[in-house]
Structure formats: structure tokens, C-alpha cells
Amino acid sequence: MKRRRHTTEQIIRKLAEGEKLLGQGQSIEEVARHLEITESTWHRWRNQYGGMKADDVKRLKELEKENTRLKKIVADQALDIDMLKELNRGNF
């Protein structure tokens, strides 16, 4: 199978289509083949995005991006505090 990246909207759409096919009695093997993904990808997507709508996924990605930015700010502040403590001790 050729490797490709899927957008979150495509993943949600494929999960919905896959659930529909599963409801019709097809096996996970057949569903994965129809969606042109591996079974492990199906399970990973289902665990990560199962039950979400496209808007929920967009919001999740935004929150993860903001969380990363805030963690970087906290790390920078911790370095500044350590530096100031070192300067205050006179060990410069």
C-alpha cells in the first residue's frame, strides 16, 4: 500500500464510512481494504478519533498546539528564574 497522509476531515469521513460498512456485516479486513488503509491504522484512528466530529478534532488540534506553546513559555521562564537565582548568589 502506498503511504499517504490524511487530513482530520478525511479520517472522520473514512471512519464514518467504515462504521457504516461494519454495520452492513463486513469484516474489519474488508473495510480496511475498501478504505485503502491497514487494520492497525483503522484501530489507531478509531481509538484516537472515534465518536468525534470534524469540529471536535479541529478544536483538539488547536488545544494541543496552544498547550505546546504554553509549555515552551513555562520552560523559558524556568530558565530565566534559574539564571536570576545564579546571578543573585554572586556566582557569576
Question: What attributes does this structure have?
Answer:
Transposase IS3/IS911 family protein; Transposase_8; single chain; rod-shaped; 92 residues; 77% helix; mainly alpha; Transposase_8_domain; DNA binding
Write up this protein:
- InterPro entries: Homeodomain-like_sf (IPR009057), Transposase_8 (IPR002514), Transposase_8_domain (IPR052546).
- Keywords: Coiled coil.
- GO terms for molecular function: DNA binding; transposase activity.
- The chain is an all-alpha fold.
- It has two domains: 1-52; 59-92.
- It is 77% helix and 0% strand.
- The protein has four helices and no strands.
- Helix 1 (8-23) runs antiparallel to helix 2 (28-35).
- The longest helix has 36 residues, at 54-89.
Helix and strand topology:
Layout: H1 8-23, H2 28-35, H3 39-49, H4 54-89
Brief synopsis:
The protein is mainly α and 92 residues long. It is 77% helix and 0% strand.
End-to-end C-alpha gap:
59 Å
- Tell how many strands the DSSP assignment holds: 0
Shape: rod-shaped
Number of helices: 4
How many domain modules? 2
Taken in chain order, the helices and strands follow as HHHH
The fraction of residues assigned to DSSP E strands is under 5%
Mean pLDDT: 89
Helical fraction equals over 70%
Low-confidence stretches: none
* Main pleated-sheet profile: none
Radius of gyration: 22 Å
Structural class: mainly alpha
